[in-house]
């Protein structure tokens, strides 16, 4: 009887062990779709129609967090859209999309899809596409320069922030101009100092403009710098 109980216990224990699930590594695949509705402003220079055979440069402008949402007119509060609304004339097209998510990062894939569509349907010189952004849009501009290193002829970042390792992925042939206020409490100037320093060590062509006694709104002075637009127009990709 004793031997029978021992055998029965062994069989029950074996069955319990075999019923336990083993760890597994499964393969799978899922096709995802990311759809985002982007409102935007598209500015044409005054001679776009008269110079019908000419291709024009284009500036992609990415706004800051305060202009995010679903009210497109908000874009006119800062940067080139504000200057256009006040009567400023620019010598190139300007594409200014709006991030619809107030608390989320820019969807840079959606932005580049919009950019490519605008370029395909307008007389844009693909070798003279410029990228700029302020604050959150400045960070997104850094990101786009990393993700699409052969798309932009020049980059201008105003009080943006970015991981320093991004420097290794940015095209060395693309000139960069960084602006930042020394009294910025939202995004400290150290964010730009560190990135600029790393880029310069790696041999990048980087200009750095610091504004003493200026806080986070360094974009006011930066985008009123006429030399910025002359500098942009001097840049053209060779490949």
TrEMBL record:
Domain Dienelactone hydrolase: 115-216
Keywords: Signal
Signal peptide from the UniProt entry: 1-19
Pfam families per the UniProt record, alphabetical: DLH
Gene3D superfamilies in alphabetical order: alpha/beta hydrolase
Protein name per its UniProtKB record: Prolyl oligopeptidase family serine peptidase
Source species of the chain: Maribacter arenosus
Lineage of producing organism: Bacteria, Pseudomonadati, Bacteroidota, Flavobacteriia, Flavobacteriales
């Amino acid at each position: 009887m004793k031997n029978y109980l021992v055998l029965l216990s062994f069989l029950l224990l074996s069955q319990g062990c075999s019923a336990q699930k083993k760890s597994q590594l499964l393969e799978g695949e899922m096709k995802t779709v990311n759809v985002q509705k982007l409102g935007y402003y598209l500015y044409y220079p005054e001679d776009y129609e008269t110079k019908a055979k000419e291709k024009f440069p284009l500036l992609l402008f990415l706004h800051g967090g305060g202009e995010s949402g679903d009210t497109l007119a908000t874009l006119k509060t800062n940067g080139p859209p504000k200057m256009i609304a006040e009567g400023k004339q620019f010598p190139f097209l300007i594409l200014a999309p709006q991030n619809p998510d107030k608390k989320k990062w820019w969807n840079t894939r959606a932005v580049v899809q919009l950019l490519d569509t605008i370029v395909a349907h307008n007389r844009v010189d693909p070798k003279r596409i410029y990228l700029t952004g302020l604050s959150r849009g400045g960070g997104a501009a850094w990101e786009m320069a990393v993700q699409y290193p052969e798309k932009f002829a020049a980059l201008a970042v105003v009080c943006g922030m970015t991981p320093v390792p991004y420097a290794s992925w940015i095209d060395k042939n693309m000139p960069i101009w960084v602006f930042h206020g020394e009294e910025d409490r939202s995004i400290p100037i150290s964010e730009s100092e560190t990135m600029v320093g790393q880029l310069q060590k790696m041999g990048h062509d980087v200009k750095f403009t610091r504004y003493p006694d200026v806080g986070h709104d360094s974009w006011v002075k930066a985008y009123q710098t006429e030399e910025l637009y002359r500098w942009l127009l001097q840049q053209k990709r060779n490949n």
